[in-house]
Amino acid sequence: MKIIADDKIPFLRGVFEPYCQVEYLPGAGISRKTLQNADALITRTRTLCTPELLEGTAVKFIATATIGHDHISPELAIPWSNAPGCNSSSVAQYIISALLQLDEQPLEGRTIGIVGVGHVGSKVAAAAGALGMNVLLNDPPRQEKEGGKGFVPLDEVVERADFLTFHVPLKRDGKYPTYHLADKTLLNKMKEGAVLLNSSRGEVADTAALKKILRTGRIRAVLDVWENEPHIDRELLALTAFATPHIAGYSTDGKANGTAMAVRAVAGVLNMEELKDFKVNGLPQPPVSVISLPSGISEKEAAKRAVTAAYDIRSDDSRLRQTPERFEELRGNYPLRREPCAFTVKNGPAFLRELGFILEDEAMLFWEDARITGEVSASGAELTNNSPDTVSCEVTVSPAVYRLRKVSGGNSDFVWLEKRRLTLRFRPQEKIQLEFLLH
Questions:
Q1: How many Cα atoms sit within 13 Å of 16 on the Cβ side?
Q2: What angle do CA 259, 262, 267 make, to 5 degrees?
Q3: Where in the chain are all domains bearing CATH 3.30.1370.170?
Q4: What does DSSP assign to residue 237?
Q5: Where are the CATH 3.40.50.720 domain residues in the chain?
Q6: pTM here?
Q7: Per-residue model confidence as pLDDT tens digits over 399-439
Q8: Is residue 80 scored above 90 in pLDDT?
Q9: Residue 137: pLDDT above 60?
Q10: Quick one: pLDDT band at residue 281, thresholds 50, 70, 90?
Q11: Which CATH architecture has domain 2-82+252-275?
């Protein structure tokens, strides 16, 4: 068997090699010739998967390690999978960083309109709510399916929002098209001083109309996505409040999630049993994982300092403005960026927990196998294998001030990986107890 994979997909090298031949190629360099004898293709958005590229090749399955799938032609007869929700927390982190850096006014009490309330939009809504913002939700497909409760018509959202953020797939036709959804009409309805944020697809906003209104100074814009990427409009770049090279979802956590979902999908199709539950372990830690906040600062200042310490949108903005011609290179060689769950905050207000941060005074236990459930307290945890199978599961206690002290219950087969991390082996229906030690 043979797999062709985009060479910029992280954490993938070495995963499939024990089971089949793997060839890594630049996304734009994947051709009909290179796919001729491949059984599967693992890709990102830079490879346009069309009938012209794939039909007549040996490819049986396509996995894209991304949420978006508009690069996969609807006319393609080959089955495919994407990675829904893989980087939703990363995009929410990006949006909150932008909001906190835009101006000095408190976000509490201001209104954010969210267009598209799927995996990403829902997390943006939760984070904005944690900051005390008024949240307006617009999602016609969901509203049609679930009923009108909780959703607001687009015109009303546009007219009321201080911040208008788009989290929609790109659809050029159908009942709910999103191509140039942010057109001249919509943009002119935005209130004066409002901010448009687009981290979905560049084609959701009409570049010409957006440039025209930005020139007037009536609204501002934060753009992570652009029409005609990677050849972005330099005038539009100069008019934005913040501009980044399509990296909102590029946290290391989000990339690991996308890779794992792609691996599991391919493994299922190619009958690689050993990889059907694959996950990426041991993500690199940020250089500084403990954020110490001074006593007596406001909640707004606490949020801004914690969020900025984890991710500062200004760094990505600066890199793009300095070298816009390196758009694709900036994406391909993106630096380490961890989500808030990798950071412990000292002296932090409780609402930071809702943004994903870990507070120093609480112990949390992490594991990723859905067959294991548990109850966690400040002093320890009891984990239960609810399946009829024997399960090996890696567990980690956080924040760094905690250590795992004792394992008991059942036969307690385990392997220490470090003081905060171990692998447990559960027999069917077995319970195992852990105790925490404050270090």
A1: 28
A2: 125
A3: 290-352
A4: H
A5: 2-82+252-275, 88-243
A6: 0.83
A7: 666 778 767 776 656 777 677 888 888 889 899 998 887 65
A8: yes
A9: yes
A10: confident
A11: 3-Layer(aba) Sandwich (3.40)
pLDDT higher than threshold 90 for residue 369? no
Q: Domain spanning 364-438: which CATH class is it, in words? A: mainly beta
Nearest-CA neighbor of 62 among 76, 46, 42, 45?
Answer: 42
Amino acid sitting at position 253: D
Please name which of 65, 8, 1, 63 lies closest in space to residue 38, comparing C-alpha atoms: 1
Annotated active-site positions, please? 201, 229, 246
Mean pLDDT over 153-177 rounds to: 97
Distance CA 89, CA 92 (A): 5
Task: Give pLDDT tens digits for 231-274.
Answer: 999 999 999 999 999 999 999 999 999 999 999 999 999 999 99
Q: Which CATH number fits domain 290-352: 3.30.1370.170, 1.25.40.10, 3.40.190.170, 3.20.20.70?
A: 3.30.1370.170
CA atoms within 13 A on the CB side of 176: 13
Contacts of 395 (CB under 8 A, 6+ apart): 365, 366, 367, 383, 404, 421, 422, 423, 424, 434
Beta-carbon contacts of residue 146 (< 8 Å; ≥ 6 apart): none
Read off the amino acid at residue 304.
K
Q: Which helix (H) or strand (E) holds 6?
A: strand 2-6
Contact between 112 and 135 (Cβ < 8 Å): yes
